Amino acid sequence: MLELLTGTGLALSAGLNAYVPLLIMGIASRFLPFVELPANWTWLENPWVLAILGVLLVIEVVADKIPAVDSINDWVQTLVRPTAGGLAFGSGTSMETAAVTDPTQFFESNWVPFVTGAVIALVVHLTKAIARPAANALTMGAAAPVLSTVEDASSVGLAIAAIVVPILILVAVPLLIWWGVRSVRKARASVAARKHEKSS
């Protein structure tokens, strides 16, 4: 059960920011004695991989805080975030941590965890991509840096919780669902209001 929560938390994190969970997993496995990636995921510990993820993370963090650029970035990330979610879920479900001391082969097939993580990350990503343009339009772009900072912090928090205290993901999932429903409703209301203004 904890393996599933770890993988889910990491995939949710990737839906908000593709590079955060992968970077945190790589750093944790490289420097923390109680975190051990499975053998086929140790490439995340490679210094070059960590450096590349760090550069990509900086680009993502900056681009996501600029109005209009953030929406373009979201479309670019439509393939990246689900892929990162699949990778994060796959490695997370078989990673040994302080909370998961005896990871089992949670899934018999290698592709099932990847697809599961990709779907989780895609749902979070699409919710974010739908809500952001409406929020920018309502606030004349002022919402972009605020929302982006909250999303980045949430991504970091989810990744750390998934590795250290995966049981907290049981609290995070309902909160994300609430946020997603609320964001989509606001986006729809904003679109409807703009259509009404144009027609009147």
Key attributes of the depicted protein:
200 residues, mainly alpha
Question: Brief description of this entry?
Answer:
By secondary structure, this protein is an all-alpha fold. It has helices spanning 2-16, 19-31, 47-63, 69-92, 111-139, 143-164, 169-199. The relative contact order is 0.19.
Write the layout of secondary structure elements.
Layout (H helix, E strand, L loop, with lengths): L1 H15 L2 H13 L15 H17 L5 H24 L18 H29 L3 H22 L4 H31 L1
- Determine the strand fraction and express it as a percent band: under 5%
Number of strands: 0
Q: Tally the helices.
A: 7
User: Helix- and strand-based class?
Assistant: mainly alpha
- Helix-residue proportion: over 70%
Distance between the termini: 55 Å
Mean pLDDT over all positions = 82
Describe the largest sheet.
Answer: none
Order of helices and strands: HHHHHHH
Radius of gyration, in angstroms, nearest whole number: 17 Å
Shape: globular
* Low-confidence parts: none
